[in-house]
Write a structure and sequence with these properties.
mainly alpha; 6 helices
Length: about 120
Amino acid sequence: MSNKILYWAPRVLSLLFVAFLCLFSLDGFTEYKGWETILALLIHLSVPIIVLLATIWAWKKDLVGTVMFFGFAIYYVYTVGLNRHWSWYVAISGPAVVIGILFLIDWIKKYKLSHK
């Protein structure tokens, strides 16, 4: 895998993951009216904001991205529980695990190059 692709893949995918998570905040517009809508939107956007902050932090530190995205995947499974359909886990934890793996691969590659 090319160094540029390996560098950009987890970063671009994490931004797309943030956008995907933002889609879940749209249900607040159908359930609430007035100021309640703004409050619901802020609450629903709290998770994507945390993932965006983790992406920003991991932009230059691949190992941070690895830990954060694996952590997000594990935390999601923990909070949802193990009694859901498998698609619940694949839809949210799956992308987080893939992004974490890509950050890890990039970190390992950089680590090997710096210790030659």
